[in-house]
Every structure is written in C-alpha cells, then in structure tokens.
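REQUEST ID: PR-0412
SUBMITTED BY: lab tech R.K.
PRIORITY: routine
TASK: structure prediction, single protein chain
INPUT:
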Amino acid sequence: MKRWVPIAVVVFVVAMVAWTASGYNALVRLDQGVSSAWGQVENVYQRRADLVPNLVETVKAAAAFEKDTFTAVANARAQVGQVSAAGVEKITSDPAAMAKFQQAQDGLSAALSRLLVVSERYPDLKATAGFRDLQVQLEGTENRINQARRDYNSVATDYNRSIRRFPRSVLAGVFGFDRQDLFEADDEDRDSPTVDFDNGDDEEDGTG
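STATUS: complete
OUTPUT:
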C-alpha cells in the first residue's frame, strides 16, 4: 500500500492548489468589483467639483456681496482637491483616509447647500437659463453620487462578508485582502444639497 502514498500526496497537493487558485481568483474578482465601484464614486464626485466654478461665478454675478459664501465653497472645493491629490492608493481600506475623504466631500456638500440658499434671495438669478441649467446638472450629479455610494456600499459589503467567511478568510489573510470601509448613509442624507425647482416660489419671490 505504500506505493499509493505518493499518489495520495500528489492528489492532495493538486486539490489544495486548485482550491487555493479558485478561492484566490474569486477574491480578486470581488476586489476588482470594489475598485470599479470606487472608481465610479470618484468620477461622480469629480463631476460635481467641475461644476462648482461655473456655479459660483454665475451666482457671484448676481450676488456680489455674498463673499463669505463664495469663500466657503472655494475652500471646501480646495480641500476636496487636496484629499484627492494625496494619492492614497487604497483609500477604502484605510479608515483614516476614508474618513478624511468623506469629511472633505461632506464639507463641499454643505457649502453648496449654503450657496443654493443664497440663490433663493435673488429671483432674477433663479430665472436665468444658465443658472437653472447648472442647477439641473448639480441635481443630476447629486443623484449619481448617491447611487454610486449605494452601489459601492453593496459591492464592498459582499466583499467584506466574503473575506470573513471560512475558509476564504484564511486566503484573505495570507494574500492581504483587507476590509473595505463603507459610506455612512446618515451623512449622505444630511449633507446632500437640495435643489428646489418650485416655480410657484419663484413667482412669489419675484413679486415680494
């Protein structure tokens, strides 16, 4: 029976290699899914950042004395740029970097909300086609941001669940697959700018 021992060892080794390869490839696919979803998050946030200069200039033309608001938006956008330029390769697996990213984006959301509140004081501004077009673009971008965050959270949750389950947890530990941080839904709901297209309010402001 001893002659079967080497064969059994070979079969065992082959089976282990096949299992390891299969499990590793599955983790790679999940990790790539997280990276893809995060890339979409970055894209939609960048789209919003690109809208800010035109939005600010449009409002500034009608509300030249709202300097504090414009400064707050500019500073918030600069902070977002600094965080993005930091070049954190795996920001989602670094809790401190992820928290800094969220804080910067939430700061820009809050500043944009204040800018939209300022625009409510100027009915003539709200009536211009250029400003309303920027509002539509901002609203669409905010919707894309919320959707991208939800998609990322869903994919990252599946990934996190997978690397915690045995036996994949063993492979995750060996090959360095780290847990991915998630966005907090409460912050998202609280900080997203609100765009109001109520024509009735516009008419009322114009007559008041």
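NOTES: Confidence is low (pLDDT under 50) at residues 187-192, 195-208.
REVIEWED BY: pending
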